[in-house]
Write a structure and sequence with these properties.
- The complex is a heterodimer of chains A (189) and B (184).
- Chain A contains two helices and eleven strands.
- Chain A is mainly β.
- Chain A has a single domain, classed as Lipocalin (Beta Barrel), CATH 2.40.128.110.
- In chain A, strand 7 and strand 8 form a beta hairpin.
- Chain B has 184 residues and is mainly alpha-helical.
- Chain B has one domain.
- Chain B is 66% helix and 2% strand.
- Chain B has a two-stranded antiparallel sheet.
- The radius of gyration of chain B is 19 Å and the shape is elongated.
- The two termini of chain B are 19 Å apart.
- Classes of the chains: A mainly beta (189), B mainly alpha (184).
- At the A-B interface, strand 3 and helix 2 of A face helix 2 of B.
C-alpha cells in the first residue's frame, strides 16, 4: 500500500527527526568497562567478575531518556571468581549451567531520570532461562563523546534457579548477589 | 601450681599439652572427612571447622611456645642416657615445629585457593599469598607430607611416654597428668 505524507504528518515527523538527531547511540569500550558481582560464601564476601559483556544504549539523550533502549549481553561463561575450585563448581547445572545457558541478557526500554545525573532502567533480565523484571539504577556522567554509566543492583539468585537443590538454603552460599557495573560508552557515528 | 617445677609440669603447661593433643586428633579427623566429602554445603561447613580448628591450634601453639620459653621444663630423670635426652629434645622440637607448620601450610592452601574464610564464621582471615593454583597444589602436598611426619613423630612421642611409664617406671608420663591421678 502506498502511503502519502499529508501536511498533518509533517509536523510530528519533524519533531521526531529533531529528537533523533539529539539522541545518540552509545557503544561500550570493553577495555574500560567492568561488570563485577559479589556473592557471599560462609559469611564472607566472595567477589567475581564477568570478563566478557557488552552494553548498547540506543537513542539516549540525558535530558530526555524516555525513548532510549538499553541492551546488555553477558557471557556468563566468562565468570571468574578468582578460585579454580569455585570456577569449576559454578559451571555445573546446579549453578550457572554453562552448557545450556551461556549468555544472560538485560533489555530495558523504560529509562527515566530520577535526579540530575541519576536514572532508572526498568527492564527484563534473562538469566539461566528465567526472565524477571528488574530495576537497574545508574549514574550517568558525560564528557565530550564519551560517558560513564555506573551502578549496582541486587539479584536474588534463587529467582533464577542459581544454586539449586541443597544449595538453595542460603546458609553456606548467600542468596543475594550484588551486581556492580562501571561501563565506559562512546558516542557512535 | 602455675609454674613448672624441676619435678613436674605446671597447670598451664598441662592445659596446653592436652588441649592441643585433643585438638590435633579432632583436626586430623576433620581434615580427612572434609577432603573426602562430596562437594556440598556440608563439605564447605566441614572445611570451615577444619580451618578454624587449625587457626585455634596455631594460636594455642604460639602461646604455648612463649610459655615454654619463659618457663624452664622439668628435668629428665638423672639416669637418662645422653642419646635419650637428645631424642627427647629433638622429638619435642619437631612436634612444636610441625604443630606450627601444619596450620601455616593450611593457611597457604586457603590463600592460594582464593577461598574467602572467616575463623568460626566470625573473624576474617587475611590471605598470605595471592591466588595461585600451582602454589595451592604444592601447599597441599606440603600439608600432607607434614601430616605424615607429625603422625610418625607422635607415634614415637606416645611410645616413649608409655615406655617411661610401663618399662622404665619413672614419672615422665605421670608428671604431665593431673596431680590427683598420681596418688590414685
Amino acid at each position: 500500500m502506498e502511503t502519502r505524507l499529508t501536511p498533518a504528518w509533517i509536523v510530528p515527523l519533524g519533531f521526531l527527526m529533531c529528537a533523533h538527531a539529539l539522541a545518540a547511540d552509545w557503544k561500550m569500550d570493553p577495555g574500560a568497562s567492568r561488570l563485577d558481582f559479589v556473592a557471599s560464601f560462609e559469611k564472607n564476601a566472595a567477589p567475581g567478575v564477568f570478563k566478557e559483556f557488552d552494553t548498547r544504549l540506543a537513542r539516549f539523550e540525558p535530558d530526555r531518556p524516555e525513548g532510549a533502549k538499553l541492551d546488555v549481553t553477558v557471557k556468563v561463561t566468562s565468570a571468574d571468581m578468582k578460585s579454580g575450585d569455585v570456577n569449576r563448581a559454578i559451571r555445573g547445572p546446579e549453578w550457572f549451567d554453562f552448557a545450556r545457558f551461556p549468555q544472560a541478557e538485560f533489555h530495558a526500554e523504560d529509562i527515566r531520570r530520577v535526579a540530575p545525573g541519576r536514572y532508572l532502567a526498568r527492564g527484563v533480565l534473562s538469566l539461566k532461562g528465567v526472565k524477571k523484571e528488574l530495576e537497574v539504577p545508574f549514574a550517568w556522567q558525560e564528557s565530550a563523546s564519551a560517558a560513564t554509566m555506573e551502578g549496582e543492583v541486587n539479584v536474588e539468585r534463587l529467582q533464577f534457579g542459581i544454586g539449586t537443590g541443597e544449595w538453595a538454603n542460603g546458609s553456606t552460599i548467600g542468596l543475594g548477589v550484588r551486581v556492580k557495573f562501571n561501563v565506559r560508552l562512546r558516542k557512535e557515528g | 601450681m602455675l609454674a613448672n617445677t624441676a619435678e613436674s609440669w605446671g597447670t598451664p603447661a598441662k592445659f596446653f599439652h592436652w588441649t592441643v593433643a585433643v585438638l590435633i586428633l579432632v583436626q586430623i579427623a576433620l581434615g580427612f572427612t572434609a577432603a573426602a566429602w562430596r562437594l556440598s554445603p556440608m563439605k564447605l561447613e566441614l572445611f570451615v571447622w577444619h580451618k578454624s580448628t587449625g587457626v585455634l591450634i596455631l594460636v594455642l601453639m604460639l602461646a604455648r611456645l612463649a610459655w615454654r620459653l619463659g618457663n624452664p621444663s622439668p628435668a629428665l630423670p638423672a639416669n637418662t642416657p645422653p642419646w635419650e635426652r637428645t631424642a627427647a629434645h629433638a622429638s619435642h622440637a619437631l612436634l612444636y615445629g610441625l604443630a606450627l607448620a601444619l596450620p601455616l601450610s593450611g593457611w597457604v592452601i586457603n590463600s592460594a585457593a582464593g577461598v574467602p574464610f572467616s575463623v568460626f564464621w566470625l573473624v576474617p582471615l587475611p590471605s598470605i599469598v595471592a591466588p595461585d593454583e600451582r602454589l595451592e597444589e604444592l601447599a597441599k602436598l606440603a600439608h600432607l607430607s607434614l601430616l605424615i611426619a607429625l603422625c610418625l613423630v607422635l607415634a614415637v612421642h606416645i611410645g616413649a611416654a608409655l615406655r617411661h611409664h610401663f618399662i622404665k617406671r619413672d614419672s615422665v608420663l605421670l608428671r604431665m597428668l593431673p596431680e590427683t591421678w598420681r596418688h590414685a
